[in-house]
UniProtKB/TrEMBL annotation:
Name of the protein: Pseudouridine synthase
The UniProt record lists the keyword RNA-binding: yes
Catalytic activity: a uridine in RNA = a pseudouridine in RNA
RNA-binding S4 domain boundaries: 14-72
Species the sequence originates in: candidate division CPR2 bacterium GW2011_GWC2_39_10
CDD domains: PseudoU_synth_RluA_like, S4
PANTHER family (UniProt xref): MITOCHONDRIAL RNA PSEUDOURIDINE SYNTHASE (PTHR21600), RIBOSOMAL LARGE SUBUNIT PSEUDOURIDINE SYNTHASE D (PTHR21600:SF44)
Biological processes annotated in GO: enzyme-directed rRNA pseudouridine synthesis
Keywords associated with the record: Isomerase, RNA-binding
Enzyme class, first EC level, given as a word: isomerase
Amino acid sequence: MKKDYKIDNEGSGKRLDVFLVSRETNYSRSFVQKLIIGGRVLINNVSGKANMILKVGDSVSFTAPEAKKEEKLKPSNDIEIPIIFENEEFLAINKPAGLVVHPAFGHPDDTLVNILVSMRPDLMRLDNLRPGIIHRLDKDTSGIMLVAKTQEAVTFLSKEIENRKVKKHYLALVFGKVDPKRGEINVPLKRSSVNRKKVDVSAAGKTAITNYEVAEELGNATLINAFPVTGRTHQIRVHFSYIGHPIIGDETYSSGLQLLEAKKLGVTRQMLHAYRLGFKDPKTKKWLELEAPVPQDFQKLLQKTRMEK
């Protein structure tokens, strides 16, 4: 859907995002800002920015999907998500493995955000479908996630992530002995044209960089500290598979023999855990570093591989 507006005296002096929200009441401000960042909003045929001030005579056009007022999240009271830290601006949670972040085909109401809006109903005022979600983890990846509680926090933290100012630290248990013990994996990634659920290494893809260091050698497995510089879909998983050391339990990027080996070890998901995040508090701008405890299934596998070393 494409719409066009000609700015008159009433719209003059307003921020671009504020103006669009006032005219398009089906859309939240965070949704409008995502459209702007995605280049879907033009001012005088040039990509706009959310904080641009409009003036009389400006031409504003944007393209967006139809929004349904009745389309809202269904709260889920089945479980509660462990909270690592909370203040007025954001939550830091420890996402369990096996949980999809937001509704999608096959997961209409059994997701992280369904649980979050049950725990914190006020989040719904930010966005009907992805309230406070500024980044995500794969379904079978566990660990720390930030959830914004105010529009200011959404804007600030989203921009920090976009500018690569949030420091991420993952733990990964991979197959084989990794050599060298410290390095950088810098290969571009793109969504597979054959299987849309997979990501491929491709010269036509986007820049993707993962730094790493070996934390512990465990016979035919290695515990890795991974520090992604970029945040591409499946990045760590694809990168370590590319260098010949897929993450144990990764059904998408492991070989058949490796999947059999993971099954023998009792592994039911990829052994990837978002362990630590370093970032600025949206309000105080103080640097924070928060950690998510390593889950039991990860710890048990570490103990098992140590005993078999």
